[in-house]
Each structure stands twice: as structure tokens, then as C-alpha cells.
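Regression test case RT-17, inverse folding.

Input:
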């Protein structure tokens, strides 16, 4: 690497305000193969049930549609995410407790971006996807953890049977 390029990279790295974080807090990432209480990253080469999820604001509320899903244990789901709102939103799969802890971290670092297979942030009118395999039975949550969004109702339930 040329010295001027190395200096520019170092300066950007030191001055950057973007924080990458996973459900465990600032700087934490589960990586590509990490299994959690709510499952593991899916395999894009394997079949998956497609579940469209829209994100939007309406009448002073922020919401997902649908806001409740039922999944079979072991099932792989390809969430097709569409932000139809006027604000950026995220879709973070976790336990309720993990999402609440992560939401508190987001209040301290509102520009935090996620680098985890269970989370995706979308700008207005953009789309994306998450492929997730639900390996354990239970009740889990998807939520938008951008400060104020969860409080405005932006959460949903995933029941794994």
C-alpha cells in the first residue's frame, strides 16, 4: 500500500463515527456461522420460505407488516424487506431481552450500523433481505432499534413451533 493511501485509510478509520455492532453490544459480531438462542444465519443455496416484510410510518406510529409470524423449528426463511417509509428503519431478529439491551446501546450510539446476518438497516424506499434458519422453538422478536422507533411500536413477534 502506498504511504499516502495508508495515511488516508488510517485517518478515515480514526475519524469515523460509524460503529458496527451486533446484538451483544458495540463492536460485537456473531459472524457468518454463529448459532444463537433464536437460530443461525441461513444458507442462500438451500430452499427457504419467502416472507415479505414492509416497514413504514403511519398515523404517528412506526410498524412492520406483518407483525407476527409463525415458523416451524428448523425452517429457513428468506425475509424480503421493503422500507416503504420516509425514514431509515432496521429489522433485527433476536430475543426480546437482547433487543432491549441493544436498543439501549443504540441510544448511546444512534449512528450505529449493523454487520450481522440477523440485522439489516434500510434507507427510505430501499429493499434488502435476511436469510435465517430458526433452529429452536420459542418466541422471538424482530424490531427496529433506531432510537424512538421501537417506542413508536416498531416490533413484531416470531413464534417458532
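Golden output:
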Amino acid at each position: 500500500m502506498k504511504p499516502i493511501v495508508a495515511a488516508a485509510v488510517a485517518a478515515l478509520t480514526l475519524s469515523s463515527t460509524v460503529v458496527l455492532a451486533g446484538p451483544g453490544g458495540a463492536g460485537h459480531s456473531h459472524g457468518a456461522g454463529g448459532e444463537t438462542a433464536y437460530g443461525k444465519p441461513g444458507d442462500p443455496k438451500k430452499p427457504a420460505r419467502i416472507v415479505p416484510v414492509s416497514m413504514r410510518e403511519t398515523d404517528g406510529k412506526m410498524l412492520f407488516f406483518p407483525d407476527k409470524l409463525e415458523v416451524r423449528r428448523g425452517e429457513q426463511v428468506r425475509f424480503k424487506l421493503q422500507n416503504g417509509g420516509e425514514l431509515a428503519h432496521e429489522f433485527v431478529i433476536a430475543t426480546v431481552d437482547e433487543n432491549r439491551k441493544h436498543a439501549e446501546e443504540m441510544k448511546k450510539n444512534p449512528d450505529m450500523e449493523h454487520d450481522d446476518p440477523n440485522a439489516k438497516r434500510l434507507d427510505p424506499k430501499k429493499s434488502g433481505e435476511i436469510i435465517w434458519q430458526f433452529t429452536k422453538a420459542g418466541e422471538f422478536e424482530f424490531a427496529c432499534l433506531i432510537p424512538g422507533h421501537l417506542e413508536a411500536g416498531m416490533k413484531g413477534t416470531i413464534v417458532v413451533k
